[in-house]
Amino acid sequence: MKLRLHFVVDPMGWLCISVVFGIWLYNTFFIPKLVLLPHYNEGHIPWAIVVCYYIASALCIAALFRASTADPGRLPVDPKIPHSEREHWELCNKCNLMRPKRSHHCSRCGHCVRRMDHHCPWINNCVGEDNHWLFLQLCFYAQVLSLFTLVLDFCQYYYFQPLTGLDQEKFTTRHELALLRVSALMGLVMFGGMTSLFYTQMTGILSDTTTIEKMANFSSEIFGSKRSWQWALAEVCGTRWKVLWLIPLP
């Protein structure tokens, strides 16, 4: 399946996604340099922990790239509507184009998106039918990476043995206070925010209700009854193979 890149021209969105990328880069560079690699070199931690951290970091940035560049489900200018489905389409009063019901016009992107959940400035893209699973992956991997970072920061303070190859007083003054505490603060904020967002997204998926519909006080009973979590996630991710739900590839 060919990858189709989708970019939104929005300076505010570029700023937001740059902040997210900066947080990822900060923790991906400083945590291995100050905690993982020095303790691994002195035999305090196994190589598996180092590998797992880099894998979580790679999956997080891959999910961020895919969620921000994937087409969320933009409708074409002249859609071909099957005659049997015409009753499930409606006219958009903003762009005057036909769209399926439960689609929404994004004022930020300037077009309609199928089953649009919301526009997220942190990925500079809409979250819709075609990239909802990628946004869910991003929330999940951001939780994993931020929790991993918090655990490593905690272990650096209270659990790991002192590094014999470094001047501890100089390390504490230059790095521990200035860098690791900032990393811990960012990890705490990211973990709390992503956990809340992931929970909100999962409740919406299980109840078959988008964020826009929740804000408009729509009931999930309008669109269907609650389904099992396996069926709901399979519909969002496009496959019943659960292992593929975790891979940010088509």
Automatic annotation (TrEMBL):
Any one cellular-component term (Gene Ontology): endoplasmic reticulum
E.C. code: 2.3.1.225
GO biological-process terms attached to the record: protein targeting to membrane
Location of the protein in the cell: Membrane
Organism domain of life: Eukaryota
Residue intervals of the Palmitoyltransferase DHHC domain: 88-216
Keywords on record: Acyltransferase, Membrane, Transferase, Transmembrane, Transmembrane helix
A GO term, aspect molecular function: protein-cysteine S-palmitoyltransferase activity
Main location: membrane
One protein family per Pfam: DHHC
Catalytic activity reported: L-cysteinyl-[protein] + hexadecanoyl-CoA = S-hexadecanoyl-L-cysteinyl-[protein] + CoA
Membrane topology term: Multi-pass membrane protein
InterPro entries: Palmitoyltrfase_DHHC, PFA4/ZDH16/20/ERF2-like
Transmembrane stretches, start-end: 12-32, 44-65, 138-159, 179-199
Family affiliation: Belongs to the DHHC palmitoyltransferase family.
Domain notes: The DHHC domain is required for palmitoyltransferase activity.
Protein name (record): Palmitoyltransferase
Organism for this UniProt entry: Labrus bergylta
